[in-house]
Input
Amino acid sequence: MDGGGTSGYPWSYYGLRALSNNTAIFVAPQGFNNGWANSGGEDVTFVDDMIRRIEADLCVDTSQRFAMGFSYGGGMSYALACARATVFRAVAVYSGGQLSGCSGGNEPIAYIGLHGLRDPVLNISAGRSLRDRFVRNNGCTAQNPPEPAQGSLTHIVTYYSGCRAGYPVAWAAFDAGHTPGPVDGKPGDFEPGENSWTRPVVWNFFTQFGGGDPNPTPTATVSPPTSGALKGAASGRCLDVNGASQANGAQTQIWDCNGQSNQQWTSTSSGELRVYGGKCLDVNGAGTADGTSVIIWDCNGQNNQKWRLNADGTITAVGANKCLDVSGYGTANGTKVQIWTCTGATNQKWARA
Output
């Protein structure tokens, strides 16, 4: 992936590295046994860990993460589209199939699928099925996009109409086999990748978004007041720092709303929820497991301090892709706050007080 195979740098990362002109960070992970079975979700967890490691060391625009892969890697990119739609801005699935699972799979994400009519490994019907999930999720108008005739040695790229703003779906069908680098007019599947039309098509799909908010459509997020208390829907009590402590690691809880500074949370443009000015709501240890405690810590810009306030009242921990949750559906003063798999229950819903 990194070396570009026999073509070298021009085909590194399916040709996108050369097109980027040093404007992007490229990472090539390696799956167990050269594959991405994602048993028990282990490969999604690996990607979560990898992202945290990268973003601890490098300056990353967290609204501009992309996943791409071919064949088994395409199946894994699809799995990330299902499980981490709020983490990645878009995915490109080259000749993929349902190989790595689809945990979740109900949220929109920008999606491009590329598949060969004569693919002998993963039939093009597999690619169409993956694509159609995000046609639905993204609210696109259902259609049967045109595909080239067998023997034409050409390709057709279709952008679906009617998709939610910021969540396009594209489908690129081509008259070739199982390859990420088809070349128009050439019958083989092993042409020099730098000559493939897939390079600019995928690069242009990714770069259409620019920087900024990873969830630009107003139906996905809300713009609440920038500062104030956050009241739990189930308990009627406010998100509170235990004992009004300002120490790193202080546990958050729910408590009677009192207007004190330890209940005043300021939303920032970078996705933080700040208290006392310089402390951030933080997922302890950058954990991702259900029940991981939510604390305060010096603001450091890492993903475990990024939160997304959703239109349904839930608050998503971006790094873990889980919801801010009152433990055990508790309503009593002092009940601790944690992260948990999003359920839509009232103990995961909050409103500005």
